[in-house]
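A.,

Following up on our hallway conversation. Structure tokens first:
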């Protein structure tokens, strides 16, 4: 009887270890957060989102399985999302008030803490590759505007006519925003909650894609890419390309990519705060992510984030109605979700 109990205990422990191993995540992605309701989604459009998120995960996973770096996995994954017009990045970028597409992106290596970013580029087909080029082929961290476009061209990246980014859905969105004046900056003197310029209906106006990957060598990388904010003016830049705000990665803690109302993520330095909470307070990736996002919410901001730690634990908190998101485990199991 005693031997039977010992054997049973051994089997339970083995099962627990096996379950734990199956739950080791090697990649997590997001495609933006906001007022995403199932009642407003057609079955066809939902299937399209799920298919693209799945394809993106498969692309990055193929890199990891081939022994490539987490940076390669992040870049390959985000390429898929940037090339799909349903997401506000690359081909699907929203329009500024002046009818332009201005794209931002950032990438970071958790092993070396090297990082690269671009903001306001208009001719780079895949801004995430431009961000990586800044990191690996220059002594800088961020380049902006025409200078970043020129650097990307000199670096040998694919350059396109700005018309490449034009899509009817995004153009119609701009016309609607202008008509409703829903992103007009008006000083909200009566609000002590946000302390920002008031923006109505903001969750329709933001969107981002992001990825965090963990490779076979145990190195993390994170990346974020976005088309910014519909009807934005004056060269506004959000949190996505700002290292420490919308993007951060450190092998000792986690890789993070954020999505949402960028001004709040910048003011709270959300991505770096998550890493710091893990490093200095010993919080788990889930605890740190929740705490950082809760602070954004208390200040009046909304959105979400993805985070993956060096042990393969994942967090995907959001305080909106939905967030396009997905994960893949070390053994290739894919999970994709959209709603709460």
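Then the amino acids I'd put at each of the 340 positions:
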């Amino acid at each position: 009887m005693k031997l039977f109990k010992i054997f049973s205990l051994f089997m339970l422990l083995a099962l627990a270890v096996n379950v734990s191993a199956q739950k080791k995540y090697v990649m997590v992605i997001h495609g933006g957060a906001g007022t995403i309701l199932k009642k407003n989604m057609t079955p066809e459009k939902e299937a399209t989102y799920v298919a693209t998120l799945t394809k993106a995960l498969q692309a990055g996973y193929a890199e990891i399985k081939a022994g490539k770096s987490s940076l390669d996995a992040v870049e390959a994954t985000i390429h898929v999302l940037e090339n799909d017009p349903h997401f506000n990045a690359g081909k699907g970028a929203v329009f500024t008030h002046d009818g332009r597409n201005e794209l931002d992106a950032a990438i970071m290596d958790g092993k070396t803490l090297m990082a690269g970013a671009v903001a306001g580029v208009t001719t780079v087909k895949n801004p995430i590759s431009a961000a990586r080029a800044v990191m690996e082929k220059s002594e800088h961290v961020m380049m902006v505007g025409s200078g970043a476009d020129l650097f990307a061209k000199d670096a040998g990246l694919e350059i396109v006519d700005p018309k490449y980014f034009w899509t009817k859905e995004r153009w119609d969105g701009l016309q609607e925003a202008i008509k409703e004046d829903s992103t007009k900056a008006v000083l909200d003197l009566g609000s002590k909650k946000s302390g920002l310029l008031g923006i109505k209906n903001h969750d329709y106006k933001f969107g981002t894609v992001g990825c965090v990957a963990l490779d076979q060598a145990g190195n993390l990388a994170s990346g974020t890419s976005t088309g910014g904010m519909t009807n934005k003016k004056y060269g506004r830049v959000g949190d996505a390309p700002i290292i420490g705000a919308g993007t951060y990665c450190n092998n000792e803690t986690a890789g993070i990519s954020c999505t949402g109302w960028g001004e709040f993520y910048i003011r709270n330095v959300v991505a770096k705060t998550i890493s710091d909470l893990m490093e200095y307070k010993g919080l788990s990736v889930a605890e740190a992510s929740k705490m950082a996002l809760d602070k954004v919410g208390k200040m009046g901001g909304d959105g979400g984030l993805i985070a993956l730690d060096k042990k393969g634990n994942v967090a995907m908190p959001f305080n909106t109605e939905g967030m396009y998101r997905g994960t893949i485990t070390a053994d290739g199991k894919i999970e994709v979700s959209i709603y709460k």
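Confidence is low (pLDDT under 50) at residues 6-22, 182-204. Curious whether your intuition agrees with the design.

B.
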